[in-house]
Amino acid sequence: MASLPQLFDLTGRTAVVTGGAGALGTAISVALAEAGASVAVVDLRIENATRVADSINATGGRAAGYSGDLSQSAAVADVFGNIDVEFGRVDILINAISAPVNRVHPEDFPLDEWQTMLDSNLTSYFLCAQAAARIMMRSGNGGSIVNFGSIAGVSALGRGNLAYAVAKGGVMQLTRELAYAWADRNIRVNTILPCQFVNQMWSSALEDQERTPVVERVLSGLPLGRMGVPSEIVGPVLFLASDASSMVTGVALPVDGGNLAMNAGASLEW
Q: What residue numbers bound the domain in which 30 lies?
């Protein structure tokens, strides 16, 4: 039986983090490196991916930055081909892409925006999972895939989130299907369901008095009374990425301040 530190030790493994230069992606990339993994940081902009990779290398880790539109199969093949050449293996995939949401009421939602949201937030996850799994299967060592869903994929948020929410609901079912299909190859596939975490968008909203009603409404749905901060996503992701969760596959883990535990009509007073 492995010791407790060994359960979370990722030494000798290679992790790929898509959306790896975002607020959550950066925290995850750095944490995976601190746990011993070599990290391939993938982002739409190479300068952002390189910035995160350089910060890891500067502290003694091993990382490289890559860029590409991961909703396109040719770009995915190119990125994962380069990762395979550089690192020779893939043991962990963190699908953390979260494309910006263009907020439109359902009755007015343009088809091109709908397709863009599905391509960015769902198709990219499938293509990257497929590419990573092929490398994992070749090695015969199995692996762990962690897909970023959202509370928006479990219950309705409104506020123009239609296509984003549908894509995140699709991520949950993609996770279940892949977990079942690849279990005999020892490839585990799980989903993280974050609530609202402080990123560039929410940082701006918290400082904008005109957005106060929206912020207050969001906070009213979080029993812990606050949004998450990027460091708080690290523990759940490391758990699912590591041997600590070796018997866990096909699950959706809320990291949501209690949001999904609370009925929409809940109150502490009666």
A: 4-197+232-251
